[in-house]
């Protein structure tokens, strides 16, 4: 085949297109809008932005926020993360406070599994930094660790569980350790539309440490294409220490 080399560029182009199509065939996997994080990382050399607007009501107190998560793929198993509640506006008894929230830095490590044969597993390590405006700034660095396990079930259902621990500080700067737990059940109705229901406990603590915060969350997500997702979720507080209601609307994009 003396002239086979003439077709080499076409062969390489065909292989490149096939690889690109295979890569694009995996739809975006997001950590929102549910509380339980995805066990999947964004992949090597990928960037993913997950942002939203959120409204929360607790009695007469109302809060508006713009939660945002930036995910940077270091390898197929590692990603770096930067997140926070963005710009906040809180109104209580007619008094209004506005400003930037604290920022959290962290990493996710996808241990193994795809969820189809056994669970898909991941570790997340974060540190909340006292970087926000005075009205919304926390006390000191607050580290946390979470473990995620996800299972693909029959009839396009899925199950996710996320236990964890966080080292927190109260308004006086006193340190304490609290638990974290989330359990979510999802249902994929089509290749583009899924819904979920979950119980989320972002803080499990003694009454002296602020008590336990618990919500019932319902929502759904729509894939516009393999790299863009829209989502909507509603949360209802399950005890008196938890805000009464919260709504979030978000968009996520992968590059």
Automatic annotation (TrEMBL):
Do you know which Pfam families this protein is assigned to?
Answer: Phenol_MetA_deg (PF13557)
Q: What are the alphabetically sorted keywords of the record?
A: Signal
Keyword Nucleus part of the UniProt annotation: no
Top-rank taxon of the source lineage equals Bacteria
Q: Does the keyword Acetylation apply?
A: no
Q: Where is the signal peptide?
A: 1-24
- Protein known as: Transporter
Organism annotation? Pseudoxanthomonas japonensis
Q: What is the lineage of its organism?
A: Bacteria, Pseudomonadati, Pseudomonadota, Gammaproteobacteria, Lysobacterales
